[in-house]
Amino acid sequence: MRQRVRTAVTGLATCLAVLSAGLIPTTAAATENQADLRPDRASKDARQVADWVIVTGDNKGLPFVIVDKLKAEVFVFYRDGRLRGAAPVLLGLARGDNTVPGIGERKLSSIRPEERTTPAGRFVSALGVGLGKKDLVWIDYGAAISLHRVVTSNPRERRLQRLATASPLDNRISYGCINVPASFYDAVIRPSFTGTNGIVYVLPEVRSIHDVFLAHAEEPAP
Predict the structure, then answer these.
(1) Is 13 helix (H, G, I), strand (E, B) or coil?
(2) What gap in Å lies between CA 118 and CA 172, rounded to an integer?
(3) Burial, 217: exposed, middle or buried (Cβ in 10 Å; 0-12, 13-18, 19+)?
């Protein structure tokens, strides 16, 4: 077990160091050491985590998703690191990388604005059913955090307009769930999770990616 932990930690540290130094050239397709994510398509943090997933095999042969909170974008990958699709997202209203304990058991009306965060981390995720029997991808079931089609029931929130703007600054509106365009959910998200689990990596906005994902790498194997 110690050897597995040491290997995972070393893999992440080495990968981040090499990527930060710019020693791995960028290509348009997935390779043994890279995901299919060009510099003009995604942030440095998103590229580093995507490449780390491929280098270490952290996705365990499953499709995976990277949510970049700072850029308000989502990237969906096939199990081998090829990019399946990307889209803008709406996120929790409040800035933060953790959830309030017990928040998943509370009524929405009781959740204060500063508590409406989208948690960062690595989540084993699967299709499920939410309110109104609509399908969604559960990210953190206990905290009631999911990825789903954009909710448009309150016109005053202007969620469709927020998704359409170029700036990520107005993409903070939800109670913590990740909203994506309905067409993207139907064409990319749902097929990616049909018949299989997947891994969702939500990038931090307060902590560093090293802290969030190195902490995961150091967890004991079950």
Answers:
(1) helix
(2) 10
(3) buried
Q: pLDDT digits over 55-95, tens only?
A: 999 999 999 999 999 999 999 999 999 999 999 999 999 99
Long-range contact pairs involving 19-23 (C-beta distance under 8 Å, separation at least 24)? 19/47, 19/48, 19/51, 20/48
Q: For residue 78, give Cα distances in angstroms to 45, 85, 191.
A: 19, 9, 11
How many helices (H) and strands (E) the chain has is answered by 6, 10
Q: In degrees rounded to 5, what are phi and psi of residue 135?
A: -75, 150
Residues 6+ apart with CB under 8 A from 91: 67, 69, 72, 118, 171, 172, 173, 174, 176, 178, 179
Residue type, 118: T
pLDDT tens digits for range 184-222: 999 999 999 999 999 999 999 999 999 998 766 655 555
3-state secondary structure of 83: strand
